[in-house]
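Entry 14. Structure prediction run on the chain below.
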Amino acid sequence: MARFDNTVVVITGGASGIGEATTRALVSEGGRAVIADLQEDLGHALAEELGDAVRFHRTDVTREADIEAAVALALSEFGSVTGMVNSAGIVGAIGSIMDASADAFDQTMAILARGVFLGIKHGARAMRNNGGAIVSLASTAGIVGGQGPHVYTMAKHGVIGITRSAASELAGYGIRVNAVAPGGTVTPMTNALGDNIPENTAEFIAEHSPLGIACMPEDIAAAILYLLSDDARYVSGHTLTVDAGLTTAGAAPPPFFSEQSDVVLHGGQRESDKNTGG
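Output returned:
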């Protein structure tokens, strides 16, 4: 059996970027998917390309009825829902917090926070009798400051919070709830922050990566599929950070990593200096 035989996953934002990569990876391993996305041309084209394992439903994640309908489509077409991926997103409001408008705040939070809340709600309703897995897209901006615009950062912290909170309640139904926090990834969203040339985006991300390589949508899709799979059957309430170590190690190693390995510092002195009175 393929890893995702007998699985049915609703993927918001599944027509492009990380969502598209997740849809493709899931289907390649035997799964079925409903792409829930506003991008009708891309969604229909991807569903047609991938065949009978995929359906498309036009979905505005800020509208509860749309998410509910996407889940209902999965149930009617495939007979069950075993997973929910909340991947839809935007950069949203940018600029100084002193100049940000309340309208831009509301629009950004509606997509990045309300949309995830609704996805978890209706995904859980569909899975409460048989269990399943929910994965939402957080960000390194949800872990540390300075990794994204203010409202985006606030929303992604919220994604991590609702992941932990929902995991606590839904464990009793056999539903695991996790998140993935990507660092900079080569997607249409990040391309639009620059010159819309993916190769240049990849070069920029690689230059700022501790590993010196660019993160691709397929790297994040692999993390999402892990959390959806039975390989992660004992993992819930967790945020899996996929950022080459940026939020833990930083972009450049501290200078003492290049010191002699047999030197020990004591109160600012090297062991050899301490022993010789130097």
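The first strand starts at residue 8 and ends at 12.
Filed with the rest of this week's runs.
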